[in-house]
Write a structure and sequence with these properties.
The complex is a heterodimer of chains A (183) and B (332). By secondary structure, chain A is α+β, with helices and mostly antiparallel strands. Helix content of chain A is 22%, strand content 13%. Chain A folds into two domains: 8-50, no CATH class; 72-169, Alpha-Beta Plaits (2-Layer Sandwich), CATH 3.30.70.3270. Chain A has helices at 26-50, 90-94, 135-139, 165-169, and strands at 72-74, 100-106, 118-126, 145-147, 162-163. In chain A, the strands form two sheets. Chain A has a three-stranded antiparallel β-sheet. A two-stranded antiparallel ribbon of chain A has the order 1-4. Chain B is mostly helical and 332 residues long. Chain B has one domain. Chain B is built from ten helices and two strands. Chain B has helices at residues 13-45, 61-70, 82-100, 122-143, 147-178, 183-189, 200-213, 238-263, 276-297, 303-331; strands at residues 104-109, 112-115. Chain B has a two-stranded antiparallel ribbon. In chain B, a hairpin with a 2-residue loop joins strand 1 (104-109) and strand 2 (112-115). Chain A binds chain B through residues 33, 37, 40-41, 43-45, 47-48, 50-54, 56, and chain B through 41, 43-49, 293-294, 296-298, 309, 313.
């Protein structure tokens, strides 16, 4: 696989050389008028033969990298089913856009929600303010919040963009293809 | 029964009417397809798909476009001259339709000539009606009462006088070799060798001038959408704008048709004679493809470059071509 299999017109090197025609006037001018014109026609014809590179978006999606920072996800322990979030609000503190709101509550023995002493009674992310920097993910001491791969979050109403804990905990619909190895 | 013009063959009136209707219908059926094909091709030239959303393969795109244009307000600027403003888009349509008449689609078959009309002054007729299109452009640009339109119209006028001469001279070589101005006779004269071989210079000059005549890149000076915001069409909207656009395609068809008839052997090709119109169409569309290819490739020339190219390169070249052809025709 060559370096530029996706963009064959760029050549194999890392650097695309600037191509200059001859100076105007005299024989160079004649070459510019005819030779360069033919060269231009050849260039465009080669593009026609290569065929379109378009990714037809709503039907086809650009694959994202595994570390792509899309919509957030909240996690539960797979064995116990308890929420990983303990309501410490470190994510809210780290958030530069100030879009996370956490209200913590004490766990009552018998009906535990999280593994820690406390849990997040309210956990909201205002996605219309979020800048997808991923600081919340870094700040979280229990890996309770991570960034997912979903980037299709447009809505007609701003209120719908405030994601509650239930929405963030729900298994997200994987609408976005992941880049395969080596892509 | 009186013939409409001094034609070389007399046909019944109803035959002529039928022929005109068929030619008109076929060409006007092709025009919308051409707009899609051009957009799709331009897209492919740029690694894109082009329109492919409306209907199968985007083929219904022109329907959507026309529907949109028809729904628009018939706007007229306050300081436009009403009659001329309306006349502007009509003249080019008239000119295009008239020019269609002389394109030969085939020889006389079963007593019917497969062409609109075979006038003995075919090429002159082509120039005469072809130039009327520029009147529409000039009138439209001037009567819009806008400086962009006026600039576009002025450029159109300047372009016309610098290219029409070379175009005429380029065709003189063909006329001298064939000894006739009738397009049908010129096609007959190409039985042995297509004129694109001996008249390659004439062909190139004719095509270059054809690009200027149809206001296509790289000579789309009157439109110049980047500098003059569509030039003479700036103040037009709705279907008037649409007819300017459609006429551009019609002119491409006409110029391609004339070039195919004069240089590429017209309807000649292998196979039975009923394939003749198909051959003509195929040659025409090869040239139409060239128009689109060039549009996808070359940037617009600067105004002064265009002028100096027309007067300093094309005109002497065309004159030289005529002289050499004349000498050769006399000698051989």
């Amino acid at each position: 696989m060559s370096a530029n299999s996706e963009f064959p017109y760029l050549g194999d090197g890392d650097v695309v050389e600037v191509q200059r025609g001859p100076e105007p006037g005299g024989a160079g001018g004649a070459y510019r008028a005819f030779g360069e014109t033919l060269r231009g026609l050849k260039t465009t014809m080669a593009r026609l033969i290569e065929g379109p590179l378009t990714i037809e978006y709503p039907e086809e999606k650009t694959p994202v990298y595994p570390r792509f920072r899309g919509r957030h996800k909240l996690h539960k322990f797979e064995d116990t089913g308890l929420e990983k979030c303990v309501g410490c609000s470190l994510c809210a503190a780290a958030c530069p856009a100030d879009c996370i709101r956490v209200v913590a509550a004490e766990n009552i023995p018998g009906e535990r929600v999280s593994s820690g002493e406390r849990y997040a009674a309210v956990y909201e992310i205002n996605l219309s303010r979020c800048i997808f920097c991923g600081y919340c993910e870094i700040a979280c001491p229990f890996d309770a919040i991570t960034m997912g791969h979903d980037y299709e979050m447009a809505d007609y109403d701003r209120e719908n963009l405030i994601f509650t804990k239930e929405m963030l905990l729900a298994e997200p619909i994987e609408r976005t293809p992941l880049k395969s190895e080596g892509e | 029964m009186l013939p409409i013009a001094d034609t070389q063959m007399v046909e019944a009136t109803w035959v002529m009417i039928l022929k005109s209707v068929v030619i008109f219908a076929v060409i006007f059926g092709i025009l919308p397809v051409m707009t899609v094909v051009e957009r799709k091709l331009i897209g492919r030239f740029q690694h894109r798909y082009g329109p492919n959303r409306v209907g199968p393969f985007g083929l219904l795109q022109p329907l959507a476009d026309v529907g949109k244009l028809l729904g628009k307000e018939g706007f007229r600027p306050k300081n436009a001259i009403p009659a001329l403003y309306v006349l502007g888009p009509l003249l080019p349509v008239l000119s295009g339709v008239l020019a269609l008449a002389i394109i030969p689609w085939g020889d006389v078959q079963g007593g019917v000539g497969l062409y609109g009309i075979d006038v003995p002054i075919g090429i002159l007729y082509f120039f005469a009606v072809g130039s009327i299109a520029f009147y529409g452009l000039l009138l439209g640009g001037w009567s819009s009462g806008s400086k962009y339109s006026l600039l576009g119209a002025m450029r159109g006028a300047a372009q016309l006088i610098s290219y029409e001469v070379s175009m005429g001279l380029a065709l003189l070589g063909v006329v001298m070799m064939a000894g006739s101005l009738s397009l049908v006779d010129v096609v007959h004269a190409q039985g042995e060798v297509w004129y694109v071989v001996p008249q390659i210079v004439g062909f190139l000059i004719f095509m270059l001038a054809g690009f200027a005549e149809t206001n296509r890149t790289p000579f789309d000076m009157p439109e110049a959408d980047a500098e003059l915001v569509q030039g003479f069409m700036t103040e037009y909207g709705g279907m008037r704008f649409g007819s300017f656009l459609l006429v551009e395609y019609m002119e491409i068809i006409v110029v391609s048709g004339v070039a195919a008839a004069l240089f590429l052997g017209g309807w000649m090709g292998p196979g039975p004679s009923f394939l003749d119109p198909i051959w003509m169409l195929a040659k025409m569309f090869a040239l139409v493809f060239l128009f689109i290819w060039v549009r996808a490739t070359l940037p617009r020339l600067r105004y002064d470059q265009l002028m100096s190219f027309g007067w300093k390169v094309l005109l002497p070249l065309a004159t030289l071509n005529v002289l050499v052809t004349a000498v050769l025709v006399v000698v051989t």
